[in-house]
Amino acid sequence: MLEIFKLIRLRTIAFTAFTMYAMRYLVVLPVLNKEGFSLQMPERDFSFLVIAVCCLVSAAYVINDYFDTKADRISGSRHVIVGKTISRRTAITLHTLLNVVAVGIAFYLAQSIQHSEIVFLFLIISLILWFYSSRFKKYFIWGNLCVAFLAGLIPLTVITFEIPLLSDVYSDVVVKNHVGFASVFYWTLCFSYLLFFNMLIYEINKDIYSVNGDRAEGITTIPVKWGISATRTLLTGLTILVISSLITFFLWKFSESVLAGIYMVIFLILPYIGYALVIRRKGCMKVQLRLIRTLMVLCMLLSLFVHTTLK
């Protein structure tokens, strides 16, 4: 059972659930309340949505490990589970089961809000994740962008089912007062943007330490094509971009909040600067990856200030 938890990345599932609940209650809810609206998706249905997304994320890791067994053995950067403690057949069965649960829940939710077309989004994401593991990741940059893009969709998933319900319930108010739900989308998009770049940095950073296995398997990652030194320079540039974005975000929405400013500097900007310095050093893989994973959580905790600002 412990190996199963390792395979489906229990820690990543917890982060996914945390992100979705943070978006719902600390971003979407206060934004709606400020404009005179309220959440319409039932709590039970939202919990089902979280489970569906977590299943998709877990299925992605399972199928990725299934195709990466040889590369992981060569690089030695990650503990090999599939083909060693868990059979390849079991891994495929688990991957299929997780996807069936995710799509099944999405179908139920889509029917409940009478927007059955949304279920195709889950089907498409499931297929993209399969092709990513089997093909896309072998192409230069596309694999990293694919993972980062799908990670960035996690906050947006929260409003995928919420906005249709809001539109149905408040249709008369929207037409009469010429208001909409664009502000909810923009706030959520900001967090999707941060998660996208954090995941992109994480994936590129991870590729540095699997370069030998990737090269042997014909996977053209950035370190394989450009070299490790150039990759570290790219990561530094991406980190500077995120820092600049955070400063812009602060000036745009939190410039009057001293507490938010202190949080930004101490818990986000300084750690990002620390990461940019550590990435230049060799042999610090665990420190680098732990830093960027921690920063993902800290970026999501910015939602607390959204809640405080708009409450």
UniProtKB/TrEMBL annotation:
It comes from the Bacteria. Keywords: Cell membrane, Membrane, Transmembrane, Transmembrane helix. Its main location: membrane. Gene3D superfamilies: UbiA prenyltransferase. This is Geranylgeranylglycerol-phosphate geranylgeranyltransferase. It comes from Butyricimonas hominis. The chain crosses the membrane at residues 12-31, 46-67, 88-109, 115-132, 139-161, 181-202, 234-252, 258-279, 291-310. It is found in: Membrane. InterPro entries: Prenyltransferase_related (IPR050475), UbiA_prenyltransferase (IPR000537), UbiA_sf (IPR044878). It is a multi-pass membrane protein.
